């Protein structure tokens, strides 16, 4: 199974959150052929989720699958850098 | 308009000593920076701040940890007997775990903020109804991110967010040296209003822990460094020495020194709430005077407490027996207690706290310390001076009669460090001196000072036998006893000098 599983933590529906969501969608559509399952978690609504995942700064992307688990903090504005860090080198 | 400027309200912390030196606690609803070097007990202070809130004021607290995991903190403070897990179960303590992820590196791509951290703190504060927040320690969060200026800005938002929550907060930060910048990473720039500094300085090869309130904006506090100690059973205790006020009462009721002849020399005994310093070289009879002072108290149905730092119980009891005093029977009777300790077993701060707790528990009418100067060797001059001030003011507040002994370094004449520090604090000073006379060592005694009373000005000879101390006649034909430079004056010359004074008068 080549599906990617992501969690994206945001704090409220801010401009910065929207930038991060848009960037993640772009990453999935352009580089992962849509083979993505994305859960968006708003820390303001689910603080327990933030607590158990020890989220400090947002936006924060967690790649849950495939292993290893990786975390990237920021609004993902540099997709090349995101890809490089996730090991998506095609 | 009249003066509308209001003093910043304070929140009593419940930390012993701190509420005194801070004139009532931390600025309420504000964040205070607690800066210190590694090992200066910052985390412990932060933990105790929350515990005191729960235990003494039923104020729940939130602990935000950037460095150690909650599990580590729970385990580390268990040794003090504090069960954080139990308070967590009771909904009085909540952790916000912001400690670094164990394995992964944090990658930053693009813009971010600490909104999530603020949301978690807010959630934790609301869920336990916290009025206190401790954050420990900021250095760890800076080391996670490259952009220091950005982290500083974000932390500033956190402190403003906490102000909105109305919590009284303590934020710890590292320092690299005891005297220098307030904290690393320019942390003070965003919590500049209130700063406390903990120090663990090495002075003359001895560690000295101190706390200093550098500033509290808009409110008063005591200035300068105050010693504190970390004890295994109750953690940090601050010893507020110069914060103690001089408001002890003074009475003119006399109490016996335990020796009738000495009472007569002092104009009818010591005052009931005075401090007497007995100074002399080794072997001049200081322990004997202490013993008689104790025995005299017990004879008058007073409770007598002796702190001995030079001899063991066995030695003390045997010596007392040799002078006809039975400490054993007096202790069994319940009116006397002997506390023996070797000075090196604890720091001076710990000795002081121990003495205070014994005094508070035993409620003595008189206290003796034999010898105060034995405690000199375990501390720096400065610490010893503070100790003496703290001890004397505590004892004066208890309104008990106290007798301290001090050993002078040289056999003939001289003065000890103890004498220098304490002489102005004591109400009376008695000097014991060796007097060399024609190949024989005799002993002399004089009452050098006695506040508020007439006293005998002679230097009298005294002898010691199986029934104690016996004070006799003044040394008439010797001068220079106190300075140690003895000069024997033939009786004929003596008479001539005395008649000379009479003629002149």
Q: What report would you give on this structure?
A:
The complex is a heterodimer of chains A (90) and B (505). In chain A, 34% of the residues lie in helices and 27% in strands. In chain A, helix 1 (15-31) links the parallel strand 1 (4-10) and strand 2 (36-42). Chain A has helices spanning 15-31, 47-52, 79-86, and strands spanning 4-10, 36-42, 60-65, 70-73. A 4-stranded mixed beta sheet of chain A has the order 2-1-3-4. Chain A is globular. The two termini of chain A are 18 Å apart. By secondary structure, chain A is α+β, with helices and mostly antiparallel strands. Chain B has 505 residues and is α/β, with parallel strands linked by helices. Chain B has 2 domains: 10-238, 3-Layer(aba) Sandwich (Rossmann fold); 254-474, P-loop containing nucleotide triphosphate hydrolases (Rossmann fold), CATH 3.40.50.300. Helix content of chain B is 32%, strand content 27%. Chain B is built from 15 helices and 25 strands. Chain B has a 9-stranded mixed beta sheet, with helices on both faces. Chain B has a 9-stranded mixed beta sheet with strand order 17-16-18-19-15-20-21-22-23, sandwiched between helices. In chain B, strands 1-2 form a two-stranded antiparallel ribbon. In chain B, strand 9 and strand 10 form a beta hairpin. In chain B, helix 12 packs parallel to helix 13. The radius of gyration of chain B is 29 Å and the shape is elongated. The A-B interface holds A 9, 11-12, 14, 16, 19-20, 23, 43-44, 47-48, 50-51, 54-60, 68-78, 81-82, 85 and B 96-99, 101, 104, 106-120, 122-124, 141, 144-145, 154.
């Amino acid at each position: 199974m080549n599906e990617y599983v992501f969690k994206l933590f945001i704090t409220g529906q801010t401009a910065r959150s929207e930038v991060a969501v848009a960037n993640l969608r772009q990453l999935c559509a352009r580089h992962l052929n849509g083979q993505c399952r994305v859960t968006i978690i708003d820390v303001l609504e689910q603080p327990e989720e933030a607590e158990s995942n020890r989220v400090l700064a947002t936006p924060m992307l967690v790649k849950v699958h495939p292993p290893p688990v990786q975390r990237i903090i920021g609004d993902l504005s540099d997709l090349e850098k995101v890809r490089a860090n996730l090991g998506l080198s095609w | 308009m009249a003066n509308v400027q209001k003093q910043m309200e304070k929140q009593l912390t419940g930390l012993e000593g701190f509420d005194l030196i801070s004139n009532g606690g931390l600025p309420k609803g504000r964040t205070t920076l607690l800066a210190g070097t590694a090992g200066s007990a910052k985390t412990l202070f932060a933990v105790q701040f929350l515990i005191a809130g729960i235990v003494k004021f039923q104020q729940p607290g939130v602990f935000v940890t950037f460095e150690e995991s909650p599990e580590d903190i729970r385990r580390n403070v268990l040794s003090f007997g504090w069960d954080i897990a139990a308070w967590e179960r009771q909904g009085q303590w909540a952790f916000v775990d912001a400690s670094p992820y164990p394995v992964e590196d944090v990658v930053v791509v693009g813009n971010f903020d600490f909104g999530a951290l603020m949301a978690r703190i807010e959630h934790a504060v609301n869920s336990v109804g916290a009025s206190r927040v401790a954050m420990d320690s900021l250095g760890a969060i800076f080391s996670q991110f490259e952009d220091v200026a950005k982290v500083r800005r974000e932390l500033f938002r956190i402190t403003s967010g906490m102000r909105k929550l109305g919590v009284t907060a303590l934020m710890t930060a590292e320092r690299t040296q005891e005297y220098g910048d307030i904290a690393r990473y320019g942390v003070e720039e965003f919590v500049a209003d209130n700063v406390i500094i903990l120090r663990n300085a090495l002075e003359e090869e001895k560690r000295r822990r101190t706390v200093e309130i550098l500033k509290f904006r808009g409110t008063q506090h005591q200035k300068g460094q105050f010693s504190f100690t970390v004890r295994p059973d109750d953690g940090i205790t601050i010893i507020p020495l110069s914060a103690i006020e001089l408001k002890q009462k003074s009475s003119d009721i006399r109490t016996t020194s335990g020796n009738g002849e000495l009472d007569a020399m002092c104009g009818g005994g010591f005052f009931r709430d005075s401090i007497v310093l007995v100074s002399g070289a080794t072997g001049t009879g200081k322990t004997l005077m202490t013993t008689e002072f104790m025995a005299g108290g017990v004879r008058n149905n007073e409770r007598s407490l002796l702190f001995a730092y030079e001899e063991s119980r066995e030695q003390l009891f045997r010596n007392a027996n040799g002078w006809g005093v039975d400490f054993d029977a007096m202790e069994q009777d319940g009116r006397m207690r002997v506390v023996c300790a070797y000075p090196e077993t604890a720091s001076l701060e710990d000795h002081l706290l121990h003495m205070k707790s014994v005094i508070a528990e035993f409620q003595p009418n008189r206290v003796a310390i034999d010898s105060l100067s034995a405690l000199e060797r375990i501390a720096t001059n400065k610490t010893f001076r503070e100790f003496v001030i703290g001890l004397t003011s505590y004892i004066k507040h208890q309104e008990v009669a106290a007798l301290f002994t001090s050993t002078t370094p040289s056999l003939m004449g001289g003065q000890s460090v103890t004498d220098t520090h304490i002489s102005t604090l004591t109400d009376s000073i008695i000097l014991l001196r060796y007097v060399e006379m024609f190949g024989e060592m005799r002993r002399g005694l004089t009452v050098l000072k006695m506040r508020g009373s007439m006293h005998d000005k002679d230097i009298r000879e005294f002898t010691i036998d199986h029934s104690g101390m016996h004070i006799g006649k003044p040394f008439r034909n010797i001068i220079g006893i106190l300075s140690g430079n003895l000069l024997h004056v033939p009786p004929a010359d003596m008479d001539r000098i005395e008649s000379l004074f009479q003629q002149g008068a």
